[in-house]
Amino acid sequence: MTDLPVEIIRSDRRKRTLQADVIDGAIRVRVPAGLPREEERRMVEELVDKIRRKLTAGRVDLVPRAASLARRYELAVPVDVSWSDRQNLRWGSCTPSQGTIRISSRLGNVPEFVLDFVIVHELAHLLVSGHGPEFRVLEDRYELAERARGYLMALRHSGAA
């Protein structure tokens, strides 16, 4: 599904914004006709990447995955876990008072061990609010925590997500 072809439709009516939809097995991107080609290429690439991440992210059902990880690592089971397109600076967030967790859709195509680490991180926040020693003990129950931290650090540094 993430290998969908991209069709660019230039419109004289569109002035400044781009719009993308998945239609008939393709990602159709509508762009202003007068947009300089280099700017068009960059903006289309960013939009298509976002669409592909969203499509990939939708394949993972986070609720049962988080419940399984919570049981395995003896953490709180969340009320709800969902993908979020609004998290551009964080990998995840939670609201302990409501028992809800949101995972950035930018993580839709990372390796499973990285996604699981972010979920465990947020599950730990359901019990401990800060990032102090008590929190780290809970987070480090995940045996690949250090490896996942390194992956996320490299991903952030590369600007790929």
Task: List strands and helices in order, with pairings.
Blueprint: E1 6-11, E2 19-23, E3 26-32, H1 37-57, H2 62-72, E4 80-84, E5 92-95, E6 100-104, H3 112-125, H4 133-139, H5 145-158
Parallel strand pairs: 1-3, 4-6
Antiparallel strand pairs: 2-3, 5-6
Helix pairs in contact: 2-3, 3-5
Tell me briefly what this model is.
By secondary structure, the protein is an alpha/beta fold. The chain contains 5 helices and 6 strands; from the N terminus they run βββααβββααα.
What key phrases describe this protein's structure?
single chain; 161 residues; alpha/beta; three-stranded mixed β-sheet; 5 helices; 42% helix; elongated
Provide the residue-averaged pLDDT.
89
- Biggest β-sheet description: 3 strands, mixed
Main structural class: alpha/beta
Radius of gyration: 19 Å
Cα distance spanning the termini: 19 Å
Which regions contain 5 or more consecutive residues with pLDDT less than 50?
Answer: none
Task: Please tally the β strands and state the result.
Answer: 6
Share of β-strand residues: 15-25%
Q: Can you offer a commentary on this structure?
A:
This protein is an alpha/beta fold. It contains five helices and six strands. A three-stranded mixed sheet has the order 1-3-2, covered by helices on one side. α2 (62-72) crosses α3 (112-125) and α3 (112-125) crosses α5 (145-158). The model has no long low-confidence stretch (mean pLDDT 89).
